[in-house]
Design goal:
Its EC number is 2.4.1.-. Pathway: Glycan metabolism; pectin biosynthesis. It holds the Pfam family Glyco_transf_8. Belongs to the glycosyltransferase 8 family. GO terms for molecular function: polygalacturonate 4-alpha-galacturonosyltransferase activity. The protein is an alpha/beta fold. It folds into two domains: 4-82, no CATH class; 122-462, Spore Coat Polysaccharide Biosynthesis Protein SpsA, Chain A (Alpha-Beta Complex). It is built from 20 helices and ten strands. It has helices spanning 4-27, 31-54, 60-79, 84-118, 122-137, 139-149, 170-182, 198-210, 235-240, 243-251, 271-274, 279-282, 328-331, 337-342, 359-364, 367-377, 389-395, 419-424, 446-450, 458-462, and strands at 161-166, 190-196, 217-222, 288-292, 296-298, 315-317, 354-358, 400-402, 408-409, 427-429. The strands form two sheets. Strands 3-2-1-4-7-6-8 form a seven-stranded mixed sheet. Strand 1 (161-166), helix 7 (170-182) and strand 2 (190-196) form a beta-alpha-beta unit.
Length: 466
């Protein structure tokens, strides 16, 4: 015990015990004793720090004084019944309180993170307003668009490469189009079909009329022009008229807030989100379409996907079941007999965001009708809760052809991705809350998106994009 390292260890042990007692002394409002403990803890720490700085052990006088003074305080704590049993019970109660606080902070963090992910940045709002004003002010833009409409034969030419994006985000959509065009071997054969809502329709038209993308053809439609998209035909629209559904998604009070906020996100009822299940009706003249989400970046030529053999299937997609939690049981409620009877819980999940759709097979197999069936069965949200992927897994069950994983790499909006996958990936998907156009975007991956944004564009500079 007289060896220098043993003395230092003894002082450290006293400090640790004193810190634990200090917590209890403060909670017991014994502030004078707490002050004395704090002072002695600082004295002991200072002694050890000085010994380390001068690189020599504590002298006998230093160590004896420090150990004796702390021992007297620890003995006093024992007389105050700050013994081990009392400390254990109090610390256990403290741990429980801290766990409850941690859970509360975690829930708030999740809620605020979701709110941040759903925000429309001021710069994006500014861009939409300025583009809308530009569209109605400039007859040249409208004239240019009319001239391009004269070449409408391209929009239905099944020999070309047809892509579709459904979005209300002008800049994100522009990145999808630009990155596809920049990496296409034959951009003049690429046709983009964009569908947006009425609020962003003029702005979207203006942006794609005033900017060129290496000869890529771009057509903009608004969802309100689809007369067949009504409550008598579309289950989601019919459900929106239901008071319980409105309460669940828009007030959050339906189940005493037991359901996490991400499950109540109204975007999951957006028709732009569900329009992917109506692609053959949106494009009745087309035979094959490549669907892209608006949060992707394309960094390879995608034309080979149009000649990929889907072996009679409707949907070509990259599977995500490399990990067990991406199998069907992750997304669906297997306590429900309808799910349990019809679907293998270990079946492979796959990703929406880059999908090749054979529209001929789609129409032949009435895939939209299958989607309607499952959407109507889920009116009470007992089959699944979140988004469009679960109904997609049900709708395209047995109708999906697995593509090479390098065609679609996910995770850029919430996790770290293997650098080799980043390099090989044809489509990089910023799925998750950390979108690259938001302040909460992952800095490491923002350059992959930024390289397809012209920050020198006058409108982007006026709206403080950087």
């Amino acid at each position: 015990m007289l060896r220098p390292e043993s003395v230092a260890r003894q002082i450290n042990d006293q400090i640790s015990l004193a810190k634990a007692i200090l917590v209890i002394a403060k909670e017991s409002n014994n502030l004078q004793f707490a002050w004395e403990l704090s002072a002695q803890i600082r004295n002991s720490q200072m002694l050890l720090s000085n010994a380390a700085s001068r690189r020599s052990p504590l002298t006998n006088r230093e160590s004896e004084t420090a150990i004796r003074d702390m021992a007297l305080l620890l003995y006093q704590a024992q007389q105050l019944h700050y013994d081990s049993a009392t400390m254990f019970m109090r610390l256990k109660a403290k741990i429980q309180i801290l766990e409850e606080q941690t859970n509360s902070f975690s829930e708030k963090s999740s809620k605020y993170g979701q709110i941040a992910a759903e925000e429309v940045p001021k710069s994006l709002y500014c861009l939409g307003v300025r583009l809308t004003a530009e569209w109605f002010r400039s007859s040249n833009l409208q004239k240019k668009l009319k001239e391009e409409k004269l070449a409408a034969a391209k929009l239905v030419d099944t020999g070309l490469y047809h892509f579709c994006v459904f979005s209300d985000n002008i800049l994100a959509t522009s990145v999808v189009v630009n990155s596809t065009a920049m990496n296409s071997k034959n951009p003049d054969m690429v046709v983009f079909h964009l569908v947006t809502d009425e609020v962003n329709y003029a702005a979207m038209k203006a942006w794609f009329a005033m900017n060129s993308f290496r000869g890529v053809t771009v057509d903009v439609q608004k969802i309100q022009d689809f007369s067949w998209l009504n409550a008598s035909y579309v289950p989601v629209l019919k459900q929106l008229q239901d008071s319980d559904t409105q309460n669940y998604y828009f007030s959050g009070n339906h189940d005493n807030s037991r359901t996490p906020i991400k499950f109540r996100n109204p975007k999951y009822l957006s028709m732009l989100n569900h329009l992917r299940f109506y692609i053959p009706e949106v494009f009745p003249a087309l035979k094959k379409v490549l669907f892209l989400d608006d949060d992707v970046v394309v960094q390879k030529d995608l034309s080979p996907l149009f000649s990929t053999d889907l072996n009679g299937n409707v949907n070509g997609a990259v599977e995500t079941c490399m990990e067990t939690f991406h199998r069907y049981h992750k997304y669906l409620n297997y306590s429900h007999p309808l799910i349990r009877q019809h679907f293998d819980p270990d079946a492979c999940g796959w990703a929406f965001g880059m999908n090749v759709f054979d529209l001929v097979e789609w129409r032949k197999r009435n895939v939209t009708g299958i989607y309607h069936y499952w959407q109507e069965k889920n009116v009470d949200r007992t089959l699944w809760k979140l988004g469009t992927l679960p109904p997609g897994l049900l709708t395209f069950y047995g109708l999906t052809e697995a593509l090479n994983p390098s065609w679609h790499v996910l995770g850029f909006g919430y996790t770290n991705v293997d650098s080799k996958l980043v390099e090989k990936g044809a489509v990089l998907h910023f799925n998750g809350n950390s979108k690259p156009w938001l302040k909460i975007g992952i800095e490491k991956y923002k350059p992959l998106w930024d390289k397809y944004v012209d920050y020198g564009h006058p409108l982007l500079q006026q709206c403080n994009f950087h």
